[in-house]
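User: Before I run my own analysis I want an independent prediction to cross-check against. Here's the chain; please return only the structure tokens and, at the end, one sentence I can use as a sanity check.
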Amino acid sequence: MKYCAFLRGINVKGTNMKMAEVCQVFKDVGMENASSVLASGNIIFSSDKNAEELKVILEKAMSEHFNYEAFLFIKNSEETELFWTKNPFEKNEAYHTYAFVGNEKVGDILMKEFENASKTENEKGEIINNMFYWQVLKGNTLDSSFGKILGKKSLKDQFTSRNINTFEKILKKF
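Assistant: Structure tokens:
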């Protein structure tokens, strides 16, 4: 089965790694056809194992190889496609749209955080099929109240986010 692994915290805040080396770690633990999409930790690969098994194997391998606490989220090709096709927001060049890949109930956690955060103009959050989407004015991502919440250490093992356009690039590579 084809999968995409979404790694959290790659090439930010001092956790720097080359995607070719990440792909090699995947290959070394038995993943087939490992290739990266962008430098933000999106690895497409094939395996006969299920997502839960893969998460354990790959987090261990990444943690040991790169000497950091790895968190990654595994979605098969159909699940990955849903992040793109279920996006509730109209394309608008003035805004960034993010989708959050994570644990099963992370959408509810993120919605609660979003509802309690102060919002910038026209900032929106929505859950579709248990997937949380966030739209924010360009330039406000890191400065927004919700954007700052996303870096909370207590949430680091729960999710990672990607700009919606990343999903389109991943789907083209599938």
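Sanity check: The longest strand covers residues 95-102.
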